[in-house]
Amino acid sequence: MKPIKDRLRQLRQENGLTMAEFAKKISVSPGNVGDWESEYRPSIPGAKALISISQTFDVSLDWLLLGQLPPTASPCVCREQHAERLSENLPPSIWEKNSLQMANDQEPDLLHSLVSSASLLCKKDKLILVELAARLLQLDRQVAANSHPPS
């Protein structure tokens, strides 16, 4: 397992940042970043800095501290595997359904599978999912309004 200083350096370099730029993004002094990456100083970021790094660069605290999981905020890299498993467990026709209610009536485990998979998504993907759900709800309401002419 690589030490935290290597993961911090990797994160900074992957984002094309100098120590000063990295420090500014997470609201610490450039000297702090230098200490964290130093081969000669056993310094690690404090809790506030770790949280700031995690949120600013969308990486998990587990990855920062322990090198566990991919560096994303949650196992986002695994989302493709979860999506594949989800789609394998559903008949092809389910993706052609026009409403969640129809899908839920015919496939009772669909909603459970979707919610379970959603819990594994990173923050950005959850926000995208919420936006998608809001848009689908809006479209469903439009379809319902158009299918029932006003009395």
UniProtKB/TrEMBL annotation:
Record field: transmembrane: none
PROSITE patterns: HTH_CROC1
HTH cro/C1-type domain mapped to chain residues: 8-64
Superkingdom: Bacteria
InterPro entries per record: Cro/C1-type_HTH, Lambda_DNA-bd_dom_sf
Gene Ontology molecular function: DNA binding
Coiled-coil intervals: none
SUPFAM superfamilies, alphabetized: lambda repressor-like DNA-binding domains
Record's protein name: XRE family transcriptional regulator
Organism: Cohnella endophytica
Phylogenetic classification of the source organism: Bacteria, Bacillati, Bacillota, Bacilli, Bacillales
